[in-house]
């Protein structure tokens, strides 16, 4: 994205002389994805050579002429006789330089992505995507269990938006295939969350795509919530997905200091529909938040790889504690775990840093004693920050689920969810062990 700014004569001479730096407009340079955020999406020459993009904290943008204003609005709203070009900068509910820079950089790092739309939260990204792409009376099949907010939207609000949502354990392709085969009409969308929050169940993305193509008559979109592992350890577009969604609050932001969301697609038409709804409904990300996300993206690989390494050590230690019944962590999967091991080996390049473990004591009071005893870990919801967070899914993040649904999904009182940060792993282990000893 280009940001207009007065250029000095030296800037103009540099441009005329043929700058040898990579083309900042090309999102898929022959560079490692962790390098692309440093060279894609922003041209310093257009912003007084600032090494970091300025924060464009403005509500509106001045047109150079009335004709330009007319053309910009015509393109933004796809009015008759519009030129079909990008609308340019108009008003920050529609677009903003910081938002576009971050969107461009996310396209650059998400393998297979063509375009992106930023949102002020992960839930606004999910809800706007679904509302924009489902026809009236449409249907979506979704992972069961799924993040609590997504569950509430699908379970309690779908009818208000005139669509039907069907929960299925998508980690079992036979169950998914049976639901699709029994349907008289193709589903409009299959929404996958993998690994599932908080059970860590992994879904075979390529397998779901194949089922969607087989039963969907080319009409069934596959959307993947990639928050737990992407963009570092899992690449849904390479496996055939149509859409990828993130709570950017988590690993993309990475510092527990912002709320944001993102939808990526490999079809410009899909993002155009989503952005059209974003423009009118108004869930637009603030310039400051987009700037912070651009800052964070540069360290995403370093953070997520360090967190995964620490999580591996913590998970291995938890397995040995006598008060822990079992530990769910992708890095612990072995061939004895059957299909889950096969899926993880096939579609993931790393385990991530989310751990779910169960206490042997099934009572809520035992879990609460553990949570109240931690001193290094932080008792808080959310995940993906540089600090380690610990919480109780049944009474916190997934408390909006019915008791019956919680029981069915195995979200018991003995379940604890842990998001491992960048602290020293031994300090985390010592903290968890002293808390476990008080259970």
Topology:
Blueprint: H1 9-17, H2 66-76, H3 97-109, E1 115-119, H4 122-133, E2 138-143, H5 148-157, E3 163-168, H6 173-182, E4 189-193, H7 205-215, E5 221-225, E6 243-247, E7 261-265, H8 268-281, H9 287-297, H10 300-320, E8 324-328, H11 339-347, E9 354-359, H12 364-373, E10 378-379, E11 389-391, H13 403-409, E12 415-419, H14 425-436
Helix pairs in contact: 3-9, 4-8, 6-7, 10-14, 12-14
Low-confidence parts, pLDDT < 50 over ≥5 residues?
A: 1-19
Largest sheet: 7 strands, mixed
Query: What percent of residues are in strands?
Result: 5-15%
- At the fold tier of CATH, the topology name of the largest domain is Aspartate Aminotransferase, domain 2
Oligomer: single chain
Counted up, domains total: 2
CATH architecture identity of the largest domain: 3-Layer(aba) Sandwich
The termini sit apart by: 54 Å
Rough shape? Answer: globular
Q: Can you identify the CATH class of the largest domain?
A: Alpha Beta
Give me the side-by-side strand order of the main sheet: 1-7-6-5-4-2-3
Kindly provide the radius of gyration, computed on alpha-carbon positions and rounded to a whole number of angstroms: 23 Å
Number of helices: 14
* Helical content band: 25-40%
């Amino acid at each position: 994205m280009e940001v207009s700014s007065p250029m000095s004569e030296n800037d103009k001479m540099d441009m005329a002389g043929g700058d040898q730096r990579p083309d900042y407009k090309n999102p898929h340079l022959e560079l490692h994805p962790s390098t692309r955020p440093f060279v894609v999406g922003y041209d310093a020459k257009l912003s007084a050579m600032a090494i970091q993009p300025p924060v464009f904290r403005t509500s509106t943008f001045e047109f150079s002429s009335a004709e330009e204003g007319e053309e910009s609005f015509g393109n933004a709203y796809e009015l008759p006789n519009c030129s079909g070009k990008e609308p340019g900068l108009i008003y920050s509910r529609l677009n903003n330089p910081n938002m576009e820079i971050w969107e461009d950089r996310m396209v650059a790092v998400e393998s297979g992505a063509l375009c992106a739309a930023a949102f002020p939260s992960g839930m606004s990204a999910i809800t706007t995507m679904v509302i924009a792409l489902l026809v009236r009376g449409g249907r979506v099949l979704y992972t069961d269990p799924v993040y609590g907010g997504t569950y509430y939207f699908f379970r309690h609000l779908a009818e208000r938006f005139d669509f039907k949502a069907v929960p299925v354990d998508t980690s079992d392709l036979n169950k998914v295939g049976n639901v699709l085969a029994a349907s008289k009409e193709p589903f409009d969308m299959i929404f996958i969350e993998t690994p599932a929050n908080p059970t860590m169940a992994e879904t075979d993305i390529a397998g779901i795509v194949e089922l969607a193509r087989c039963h969907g008559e080319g009409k069934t979109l596959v959307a993947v919530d990639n928050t737990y592992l992407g963009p570092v350890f899992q690449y849904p577009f390479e496996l055939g997905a149509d859409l990828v969604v993130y709570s950017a609050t988590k690993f993309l932001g990475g510092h527990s200091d912002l709320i944001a969301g993102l939808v990526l697609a490999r079809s410009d038409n899909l993002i155009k529909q989503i952005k059209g709804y974003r423009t009118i409904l108004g869930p637009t990300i603030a310039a400051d938040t987009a700037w912070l996300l651009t800052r964070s993206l540069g360290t995403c690989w370093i953070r997520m790889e360090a967190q995964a390494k620490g999580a591996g050590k913590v998970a291995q230690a938890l397995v040995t504690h006598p008060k822990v019944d079992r530990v769910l962590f992708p890095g612990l999967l072995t061939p004895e775990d059957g299909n889950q091991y096969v899926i993880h080996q096939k579609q993931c390049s790393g385990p991530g840093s989310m751990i779910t473990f169960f206490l042997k004591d099934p009572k809520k009071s035992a879990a609460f004693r553990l949570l109240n005893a931690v001193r290094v870990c932080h008792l808080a919801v959310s995940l993906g920050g540089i600090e380690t967070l610990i919480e109780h899914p049944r009474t916190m993040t997934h408390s909006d689920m019915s008791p019956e649904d919680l029981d069915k999904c195995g979200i018991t009182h003995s379940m604890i969810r842990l998001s491992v940060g960048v602290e020293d792993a031994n300090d985390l282990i010592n903290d968890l062990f002293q808390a476990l000893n008080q259970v």
